[in-house]
Amino acid sequence: GRWIVHRPKVGYSLVVPTSDELVRKGWHFASRRTKEGAERAIDCFQQAATQCPGDFRAYEGLSTCYLMQATFGICAPIDVYPQFLDAHNRAVEQGTLTPELRCNRAHGLHMFEHRPHEAEREFLRALQDKPAFATVHVRMALMCATLGQLDRALELVTQGYQADPLLPTLPPAEVNVRVWRREYDKAVEIGRKAVELHPYLQISRANYAQALEFSGRLEDALEQYQLGSIMSGDLPWMRALEGTCLAKLGRTTEARAILDELEHRRDSDYADALYVAVLRDALGERAEAFKEIERAFDENSAFLYSIDVDPKMDTFREDPRFTRLQNSIRTKGCEA
Fold first, then answer.
1. Environment class of 160 (CB within 10 Å of its CB; exposed 0-12, middle 13-18, buried 19+)
2. How much is the average pLDDT of 120-135?
3. Amino acid 307: pLDDT
4. Is 286 in a helix, a strand, or coil?
C-alpha cells in the first residue's frame, strides 16, 4: 500500500522502492539457510535499509536472518539475539505485525528467552491469521520438546506436512522428534528421505547422522557427519558431532585433532559449547565437559531448549550439576 502514491491533478501511481531488488536478493540468499547465505542476506537487507529507511521489508529480512544465525548455531545467541529484537521492533513499527513476524517473535521467546507458554500463545495467533503457515508447526514442535509434549510434537509435524509437504525444515524437525521419542529406526528412515530431498541443508544431514549414531550405526553416521562437514565446514558444531562419533569409534587421535581445531577456531568463530561438551565427554573429559555446558548456558546456546529430551544429554543426567543447569534454565524463563 505504501507504494501507491497520489499525485495532485494526475492521479495514483505505483512507486516501487529502489530497495526492491536488494530485498529480493536478500531473501534468495537467506533461503539457503547457511552461514554464508545469512551473511550475504544481511548485507543486502542492510543496504536496502540504508537506501529506503521506511521499507519495513528490509528490517523484516534482517530480523529473520539474525534469528537464523542464532537458531542454527552460526553465531552466539547472546550477541546476535539483541540484533534480532531491534530489527524485529523496527519492522513492526514501520509495517505491521504479520504472521511471519509474529512467528519469529514466538520462536525467540521459546528458544532464547525460555518462555514457552508465551511463545505458544503467539504461535497460535500466527496460525489464526495464516492457517497454512507450516513454519509455525515446525517451531511449535520444537517448543513441545521443552514442554515434554512429544506426542503433540509429532501431531504438529504431521499438520505441517499437510500445510506444505516440501518445506525444507519439516523432515529434520520430524527426525528430531523421532529421536527425542527414541524411535531411532523411524528417525533413520525419515532422515534418509530428508537428505534425498534437501541434500545441501546442513540440519538435515546432521539430524540424519545423529539418528544413525543413536541406532548404533556409527560408521554410517560418521560418513554423514563428514559429508556435512565438507558441505558446511563453516559450522563448528558439525565438526564437534563428527569428532564425537570418531571418539565413540575409538578413533581418539582424530577426535582430539577436531577438538584442538575447534579450540583454535574459537579465537575468531563461534563454536556452540553444548556440542563441544558432548565431544569432551566422549573423550573422557567429564570435568571439562561441564565447564562447556556452563559456557553454553552463559552464551544462551540455541540447543538448550531440548536438553530434557535429547539423548546426547543422557550421559550427564545422573550428575547433580546437570540438574542445576536444567533448573537454571527454567528459572531464567520465569524471571523473564
1. buried
2. 97
3. 94
4. helix
Any idea which of 24-28, 52-56, 214-218, 331-335 has the lowest mean pLDDT? Answer: 331-335
Phi/psi-derived region of residue 210, left when phi > 0, alpha when psi is between -120 and 50, beta in every other case: alpha
Taking alpha carbons only, the member of 233, 294, 236 closest to residue 270 is 236
In the chain, what is the greatest distance between 2 CA atoms, to the nearest angstrom? 81
Q: Which three cell numbers stand for residue 81?
A: 539475539
What pLDDT, on the 0 to 100 scale, is given for residue 311?
97
Q: Where are the alpha helices (DSSP H) in 112-217?
A: 116-129, 134-147, 150-163, 170-180, 184-197, 202-214
Other CB atoms within 10 Å distance of the CB of residue 260: 11
DSSP string, 78-125: HHHHHHHHHHHHHHHHHS---HHHHHHHHHHHHHTT--HHHHHHHHHH
| Structure confidence at residue 8 (pLDDT) | 78
Q: How far is CA 14 from the centre of its chain?
A: 38
| Separation CA 142–CA 244 (nearest Å) | 24
pTM of the model as a whole = 0.90
> End-to-end distance of the chain based on CA atoms, in angstroms?
37
